[in-house]
Amino acid sequence: MARPEKAQRIQLPVRARERRTHAERTAETRARVIQAVFDSVSELGFQRTTAVEITRRAGVTWGAVQHHFGDKDGILVAVLEDSFNRFAARLEDIPVESSTLQERAALFVDGAWQHFASAEYRSTFEILLHYSRGDASGPAPNWQREMFLAWDRIWMRLFHDARISRRRHVVLEHYTVSTLQGLASTLMLEGEQAQIQPEEIQLLRDVLARELAGGKT
Questions:
Q1: Residue 31 and residue 41: Cα distance in Å, rounded?
Q2: In the chain, N or C terminus with fewer CB closer than 10 Å?
Q3: Distance from C-alpha of 145 to C-alpha of 46, rounded to nearest angstrom
Q4: Domain boundaries in the chain?
């Protein structure tokens, strides 16, 4: 009797692993470190966010962190920049030409509040507080100036057609930031039990819309 032929093994084609570029690997490492700082500061506070804690959460060595950011101040500035970029991303889709000032004011307040009420902002606040106390010699003052200029560009893109003076624009910008920071501070101070009433956000929307219209309702 003829021997039965051995069943041939089915060999699946081996898919070649996609190799990431150096730029992609760098971006991924930076993103992991920045997110590790956000999470650590938000959960543990600034003082307990140590080099060991950052590297543990990011899954990298401190040497890798230094390679990408330099010293700790370099990391903190990168975190501040990333936080502002997240804020800007929340506002970039607001339509300008096809919406009224009132509609834009409401969308701006809503998008900005999402940022100020986030864990990322809580981390940013602690870092800025660290700098304001003089605990670090990093470039925070210069960064804060750059942040305001970037905020101003976003503001003027959205509200360039408001018939108010340039000084009034600046006053409204500062007022809006101060109000949102105050509400965010309430959340941080009161903890999990804190609640910001919708009427408080609506009041800011109404004030901003009225003032951008030159005080007319």
A1: 15
A2: N
A3: 23
A4: 23-70, 71-212
Question: 102 with 68: CB under 8 angstroms?
Answer: no
Q: Which residues contact 185 (CB under 8 A, 6 or more apart)?
A: 125
CATH code: domain 71-212 is: 1.10.357.10
**Per-residue model confidence (pLDDT) at position 17:** 59
**Rg (the chain; Cα; Å):** 24
Digit-coded pLDDT (tens) for 138-191: 555 566 777 788 889 999 999 999 999 999 999 999 999 999 999 998 888 876
Distance CA 113, CA 183 (A): 9
**The tokens of 158 are what?**
């959205």
88 CB neighbour count, 10 Å cutoff: 15
pLDDT over 90 (residue 5): no
Q: 208 near 217, Cβ under 8 Å?
A: no
Cα 160 to Cα 38, 58, 169, 186, 195, distances in angstroms: 33, 41, 9, 31, 33
Are 77 and 137 within 8 A, CB to CB?
no
CATH number assigned to the domain covering 23-70: 1.10.10.60
Tell me the pTM.
0.76
